[in-house]
Amino acid sequence: MLSPYFLFLLLFIALTPVRPAFGQAVSGSIFGTVTDPTGAVVPNATVNIRDVDRGVDYSVQTISDGNYIQTHLLAGHYRVTIAPSGFETFVADATVDVDAATRVDAHLVIGKASSTMTVTTETPLLKTDRAELSDTLSTTQLAALPVLGRNMTDLMLIMPGAFADSFQVAASENPQSGLQVDFNGQSFTANGFLLDGTENQNPLLAIAIINPNIDSLQELKVTTSNYDAEFGSVAGALMQATTKSGTNQVHGTGFEYLQNDIFDSANPFTQLKPPLRWNQFGGSLGGPIKKNKIFIFGDYQGSRQRNGGSLITTVPTTAERGGNLQSLLGN
Fold it and tell me: Tell me, what's the pLDDT at 23?
């Protein structure tokens, strides 16, 4: 017999409202077609896909039309291997981006299984698998771009059709200094922000809640039109930030940005040079806890700022200190 407490718990669970979950893109995919030397498709061929960074293996089969696809791949570097009987082993290196599909077509060559044909894939100039308009900044590009203050949302301004809104949320309500950017004539309130596939937008102010350290980002993708169906709530731009993860190799970064008054000019009105000390520093570190199984990654960013100032003012004269304020009347 069930206890009253257990019955109450079941009733509570049954009546608890469930919030719908929207589609979230945190991974990419590899797809392609396998053909023989005559151009005929090769069905039922085994396609092995290895995550070079994390040592994880995936295996799929080509279907009747020779096509294959492997979804839910983390952003990173992959090696595609196809070794059907009677053909040379096909090996291709590919890079997978978040919310993007990488095509790797295999044109097999008749030969011994011991021989290997290695190719290197290149990013096509024209996307044929989707109609969206987007730009993706890789880890290398994020590290190379000069961003004053290292504010992730500033990177939206390098995209076509973007300009900073004349209205900016006050610092008291925007502690992470998220920038308000209009895209293609739409208000900044029509933008959307995702961080690792999780909603990252303040529902009242329409700004990014978390503005992550640039050194922690694997990719930054900004889509401005023709969004996928899961992003139907966006009418302006969608910013998808993806953070790095640990890999089998220990990797990290470090940075320090310094600004002081040594190279500053003096104030032209006071001929004084107020003291200035501005430091922004941090870094990231990732690696394996157990190779091919468990990984760890972390990052830190800090800022320290000390500012001085100069001004022109007057001090009380001897007469004013004695109580004679006649000079203040302008006589």
Answer: 44
CA dist 216 and 220 (Å) reads 11
The residues near 22 (Cβ < 8 Å, ≥ 6 apart) are 199, 230, 233
Q: Which two tokens stand for residue 242?
A: 């993806």
Smallest CA-to-CA distance from 288 within 243, 244, 248 is with 248
Contact, 247 vs 286, CB < 8 A? Answer: yes
Instruction: Please tell me whether residue 12 adopts helix, strand or coil conformation.
Output: helix
3-state secondary structure 225-273: ECCCHHHCCCCCCEEEEEECCCCCCCEEEEEEEEEECCCCCCCCCCCCC
Q: Which of 5-14, 185-194, 265-274 has the lowest mean pLDDT?
A: 5-14
φ and ψ at residue 245, rounded to 5 degrees:
-130, 165
pLDDT at 325: 85
Closest CA to 174 of 144, 153, 198: 153
Q: What pLDDT is recorded for position 146? A: 84
User: What pLDDT is recorded for position 284?
Assistant: 93
Q: How do residues 289-328 score in pLDDT, each as one tens digit?
A: 988 888 999 999 998 988 887 777 888 888 888 888 888 8
- Report residue 217 CA to chain centroid gap: 5
* Of 258, 254, 243, the residue nearest 304 (C-alpha): 258
**Alpha-carbon separation of residue 246 from 95, 97, 119, 242, 298 (angstroms):** 17, 16, 27, 13, 9
For the chain, list the domains and their CATH numbers.
28-120 (2.60.40.1120), 133-243 (2.170.130.10), 246-331 (no CATH)
